[in-house]
Design goal:
The protein is mainly alpha-helical and 299 residues long. It is built from 13 helices and no strands.
């Protein structure tokens, strides 16, 4: 009977501790109004990307030569471009490309980088040396420059941009994961599992990887903004999303020729890029503060 009471008390204590941790996370994460505003911006972007056909007032690819470079009006809140397409509709549809590039390229980079970093840090020796030297070579080149080289070599288009950005971001995940693994590798509970006969693969997946997730979640969030900004840069240079598909970077390129006469053509998609990238950076910083174990008990 006493044993059952003690076990019940432990279960209740664990539930209370878990609830307390959740409350602390939300309190720290949502402590700043800028974080709430950033989450709202990201939410709006996702809604626009998913429901673009329902939200956009016009077909973003329909050309109307009677409305070329029209000023903002009730019919066209952000005006029209040089071939009469509605700018607002194209910005809304451009969120689809931005979100898709961000999600898939970051997914590719994180999966490959985490696997490489996990094996590199846990195995050590020659495997570690080979993987890290390859990552150092890639990190020596800025991601956007590396992406420009890849796209110039293999061509533009949505698929190539996603693959290119995904590969260029791999080193950041590999190095972060390796550092986390090295910090955990010699922990007592890992050594105990090895002494009990647990395999290396089991240790890596069940015990090492879960304890490395917090900084990886932060990096994934930050890299969403990096990927979206890089895609916009490539599209601006004519190396990214192939026209006539709506992309924020190519819209900025189309509009910069009319900066004096019709600045909103570049300003509107440029603001979309800035708002989304800054929003992901702010959310990433807030996640870092909320997930940082050094802050536990300090608030």
């Amino acid at each position: 009977m006493t044993t059952e009471i003690i076990a019940s008390e432990k279960v209740v204590e664990q539930k209370v501790k878990k609830t307390s941790n959740k409350k602390r996370f939300l309190r720290v994460f949502l402590a700043r109004k800028t974080v709430v505003a950033s989450l709202a911006i990201i939410f709006i972007m996702i809604i626009c990307a998913i429901f673009a056909p329902l939200i956009a007032p016009f077909d973003p690819y329909k050309q109307d030569y009677t409305q070329i470079l029209a000023d903002p009006s009730l019919a066209h809140p952000l005006g029209t471009d040089l071939i009469g397409r509605d700018v607002l509709s194209r910005i809304i549809y451009g969120s689809q490309a931005a979100l898709l590039v961000g999600m898939v390229s970051v997914a590719i980079a994180s999966v490959i980088g985490i696997i490489l970093g996990l094996f590199s840090g846990y195995a050590g020796g020659l495997i570690d040396a080979v993987i890290m030297r390859a990552m150092d070579a890639l990190m020596a080149i800025p991601p956007i420059i590396l992406a420009v080289v890849f796209v110039a070599a293999f061509g533009g288009g949505l698929k190539n941009v996603i693959i290119t950005l995904g590969l260029s971001l791999v080193p950041t995940y590999a190095r972060l994961m390796r550092g986390q693994v090295l910090a955990i590798r010699e922990s007592d509970y890992i050594v105990a599992q090895e002494l009990m006969g647990s395999t290396n693969i089991r240790n890596m997946i069940k015990h090492v990887l879960p304890n490395c997730l917090s900084p990886l979640i932060v990096l994934i969030t930050l890299n969403f903004g990096v990927a979206i900004l890089a895609e916009a840069g490539l599209s601006f240079l004519g190396l990214g999303i192939v026209p006539p598909k709506a992309a924020w970077g190519s819209m900025i390129n189309d509009g910069y020729k009319y900066l004096l006469s019709n600045p909103i053509l570049s300003f509107a998609p440029g603001m979309a890029v800035v708002l989304v990238v800054v929003a992901f950076n702010i959310v990433g910083d807030a996640l870092r503060d909320a997930l940082d174990p050094r802050l536990k008990g300090s608030l």
